[in-house]
Amino acid sequence: MSPPAIAVSGLTKSFGRTRVLNGIGFTAAEGTVLALLGPNGAGKTTAVRILGTLLRPDAGHAEILGYDVVREPQQVRSLIGLTGQYAAVDDMLSGRENLSMIGRLLGQHAQAARRRADDLLSAFDLAGSAGQTVKAYSGGMRRRLDLAASLVTQPPVLFLDEPTTGLDPVSRQRVWEVIRELIGSGVTLLLTTQYLDEADALADRIVVVNHGQVIADGTPRELKERSRSAHVEVTLAEPGPEAAEVIAPLVGGQVSVSADGLRLGAAVDNAPGLATAVVRALDQAGILTDTIEVRQPSLDDVFFALTGAAERESEGAAA
Amino acid sequence: MTSTIAPRAAAGTRPLTQGVAERVRNVMSMTRRNLVHISREPMQLSDVTIQPVLFTVLFIFLFGGAIPIPGGGSYTDFILAGLLSLNLTTSTMGTAVGLATDLHEGMIDRFRTLPMWRPAVLVGRSFADLLTACLCALVVAVTGLAVGWRTSAGLLPIIAGFALVLFFAYSLSWVAACVGLNSKSPESAASFGFIVLFPLAFVSNALVPTQHMPGWLQAIADWSPVSAVTAAARQLWQNPNPSASISAWPMQHPIEASLAWSVLILAVAAPLAARYFRRRTTE
Predict the structure, then answer these.
(1) What is the pTM of this model?
(2) Chain A touched by B155 (CB under 8 Å)
(3) A59-64: strand order across its sheet
């Protein structure tokens, strides 16, 4: 069996007295997209820098396609591309010069490097600015050029550290499009993000990180199911004071009623067939329902539920 | 698009050790990068073009008449080797600032994730800086000739004199690299010039004969590498060299002394810079 594209276990790293990674571990199979999701300071960037051979871990293991990042860094470098949080492109060079310099550094001949640079520039919608110095590029253009720079080698494993942080919505969409095309190409992608919608939209698997630890790991769907935070909202045809009592047993919790008595809302367990059960119970009580909506939990709900729980646990442990 | 961005087969890793030819190509790429930077922002070159002209003219016309040369000779003929040392010594500040800037802007991270020969980052920078130092030497020589500097030496000794000073500047650029790699910001790297390089250049025989200095200062100046390099160039160019009458060993053997200094500085600073580079970037 071939090794996973990315295998990380028990990774720890401290800077001075601050422990940034606290035994983090995850794996990504070849050709999949893994998102490391967490707030600022969760340790995402540190993990990526270790995987990118830019930092040494204090303890733990990390392998890329079976190569150890500490013991075999040069092999790892030949397999990866890394696009950091702050675009690492040369301001004083043009877009084309940036890419062909990297090609040259990797042993391509001048013409081949230039050809590859031009191919990448048009693939990333930068052909029109190929000869301009990067200084004149917008934030989104720099990010795309940076992405192109990590693809010069056609690496089978790619790390994208917060690829859309700080971009306006339009540039963000454009970077997403590029990432989607990458995903289709068979590359293994590790993406860090603080945006749940980004992880939801792009990743096969999400690892939620907080305080340098993994607090949840699964597909976006699994994570949503794990969180029991669906929301049901009912609008009645006419005010029914007893409606709240009728549905309370079904939702197993507090039911809120709007001032006009027409709208009911409740946080519920994410059970199958819930909407049917609610409507039927109301009908049996002689109450007419105009609309019912069961909103599936967003990853935001999941994330806050998870990080909140972790926070309480650590406080409990400290007490 | 898909064919452009599609990954290679995972099995196709590149050869892991670079041959000499590949290392040389890496160094050339890095050198070219630094030269392109200069071409985009020519004002970067002011310290090796405008400054030498300014210093040459200022020193010759301001101090020329006021400073007697022990043993005789014109101040213009005396000062030229000194101005060359002064300008080349202080211009190594550019290496410190350049490296600090690269570290600051994340460009070094990009290079470090590539399977390239990493020392090329430092070696390429040092070569680009050597080329600008050559330009600086040319500017000093031409300005000197314009204001009356003359030498009766043959072509070979003249070239040897320039080469000795350039070699010294090259070795010093590795000290500057160490400073740049340990700087928190490009600005703090720049202060290296004023705190270290200017005193180093001034406390020497470069601008004034050391005979007029207080005893303790003269002892320092006579053993300064800048003095050895300057005296060696004066000797080779058959320009007035008042240090020849000083008994300190480097002043009696300036060519050997300047070579020894340059080799020593290079032997210590280059491996140290390589170490700082590794440490600064993987800690």
Answers:
(1) 0.79
(2) no
(3) A18-28, A6-15, A59-64, A67-68
